[in-house]
Amino acid sequence: MSEISSMLITHTKASIVEMENAWHGGIDNLLMHLKAHQLVEECAVLKTCNRVEVYVVSPKGSKVLLEFAKHMKVSSRIIDFLDHDESLRHLLRLTSGLESMIVGEDQILGQVKELYGLAKKAGTVGKTLDTAFNKSIQVGKRIRNETGINKGSVSIGSAAVELAENELEGLDGKTVMVIGAGEMGTLVAKALANKEIKVIYVANRTFDKAEALACELNGKAVRYELMENYIPLSDVVISATSAPHFVLTHEIISRAKEKRGKDLMLIDIGNPRNIENCVGEIQGISLHNIDGLRSISEANLAKRREEAKKAEVLIEEELTLLKKQYKRQQADTIISALYSRVETIRCKECEEAINKLMARHTMGDVEREVLDDMTHSFANQILAEPTKILRNAAEHDDERFLDAVAELFKLNGVKGKK
């Protein structure tokens, strides 16, 4: 019986280095390698910075994936192998954001859609995986619409941007400066990426890094030694460096405020702190630090975890519907083959009857149509009750009965196939 099997290498067991080492070549090459296996009917691959996941449809999926893991020289210590039902549940949880490092993050849903699209384009998927992935994408959308699992920033970088939005009543048309292009600065940049910001300045000690990050944001790179010139032009300055000294001092901000003449918001998410505490005493300067943002992030994460409980209930509900859908498909495959077999016989016998009649009488289109309609009616009435019984058997997991029908009518190639 062909079912979905999967192998997962994720952040729960593997380090970033181990996940990188588990990946060899491009997605297209990997898909073609898997599809070439004589036991693989369908396959898809998901790869993000936090996971490498391989899905196959096969009568012996666990054997195929164990062989594949050995071929890729990946230790079983960092792999989870899932059967059909486990794979379905995992996919629904994955697109809903429950398997992410940051619970409820939205990025994974788009990544699954994109990577599944690549498998479809490569021609390595069929009805079984199509059903699973389409359902998972639909469920991911439903969870985000019906729960608050993706509401509220949970990284310090995104919390800084959210705080700026709240204080300034939105960032549309505003000018933002990000100081630092390292890990924290990049988190800030990602959170700013989809905002309607007028200008984003990026300053960093290594100018090449500032240019690379600014390029991603359609922003402007600023040389570190010249950044003081751009502070008066900014509505918000977010400092995210690991410098061991203050990047922005009372003296620097006093000069900038004098040139600016308007209020200025400063957010310090550096470690250690980047901005002198006394800067907050300057009139018209609003200073926020990482401690306040951390409490916001932790509170939001706690809320998301509560919303995750609601998501779990919806996922189990959708998983039940998905399993029923597969059962209907299992019966429909046999029913389709049965109707096809009967239709072949009907057409053959109908043609023979017409030939015999034509040997004795003149046959016109009307007579042919009457015979065709009559034999169609016979076939449909004969198969109506077996169709109901087969679907009922599938609903009740009576695979032995389905297999017996497939064997009885010699419906080769559809026996027991999901």
From TrEMBL:
Catalytic activity: (S)-4-amino-5-oxopentanoate + tRNA(Glu) + NADP(+) = L-glutamyl-tRNA(Glu) + NADPH + H(+)
Site, as annotated: Important for activity: H90
Keyword Zinc appears in the UniProt entry: no
Residues that coordinate or bind NADP(+): G180, A181, G182, E183, M184, G185
Pathway: Porphyrin-containing compound metabolism; protoporphyrin-IX biosynthesis; 5-aminolevulinate from L-glutamyl-tRNA(Glu): step 1/2
Residues covered by the Glutamyl-tRNA reductase N-terminal domain: 9-147
Enzyme superclass (EC): oxidoreductase
Residue ranges constituting the Tetrapyrrole biosynthesis glutamyl-tRNA reductase dimerisation domain according to the UniProt record: 310-411
MF annotations from Gene Ontology: glutamyl-tRNA reductase activity; NADP binding
Record bears the keyword Oxidoreductase: yes
Catalytic site positions: C49
InterPro entries membership: 4pyrrol_synth_GluRdtase, 4pyrrol_synth_GluRdtase_dimer, 4pyrrol_synth_GluRdtase_N, GluRdtase_CS, GluRdtase_dimer_dom_sf, GluRdtase_N_sf, NAD(P)-bd_dom_sf, Shikm_DH/Glu-tRNA_Rdtase
EC number: 1.2.1.70
A GO biological-process term: protoporphyrinogen IX biosynthetic process from glutamate
Positions in coiled-coil regions: none
Gene3D superfamilies: Glutamyl-tRNA reductase, N-terminal domain, NAD(P)-binding Rossmann-like Domain
Location of the Quinate/shikimate 5-dehydrogenase/glutamyl-tRNA reductase domain: 162-296
Subunit: Homodimer.
Note: During catalysis, the active site Cys acts as a nucleophile attacking the alpha-carbonyl group of tRNA-bound glutamate with the formation of a thioester intermediate between enzyme and glutamate, and the concomitant release of tRNA(Glu). The thioester intermediate is finally reduced by direct hydride transfer from NADPH, to form the product GSA.
Family to which the UniProt record says this protein belongs: Belongs to the glutamyl-tRNA reductase family.
Cited function: Catalyzes the NADPH-dependent reduction of glutamyl-tRNA(Glu) to glutamate 1-semialdehyde (GSA).
PANTHER family membership: GLUTAMYL-TRNA REDUCTASE
Domain remark in the UniProt entry: Possesses an unusual extended V-shaped dimeric structure with each monomer consisting of three distinct domains arranged along a curved 'spinal' alpha-helix. The N-terminal catalytic domain specifically recognizes the glutamate moiety of the substrate. The second domain is the NADPH-binding domain, and the third C-terminal domain is responsible for dimerization.
Protein's recorded name: Glutamyl-tRNA reductase
Organism name: Candidatus Methanoperedens nitratireducens
Lineage per the UniProt record: Archaea, Methanobacteriati, Methanobacteriota, Stenosarchaea group, Methanomicrobia
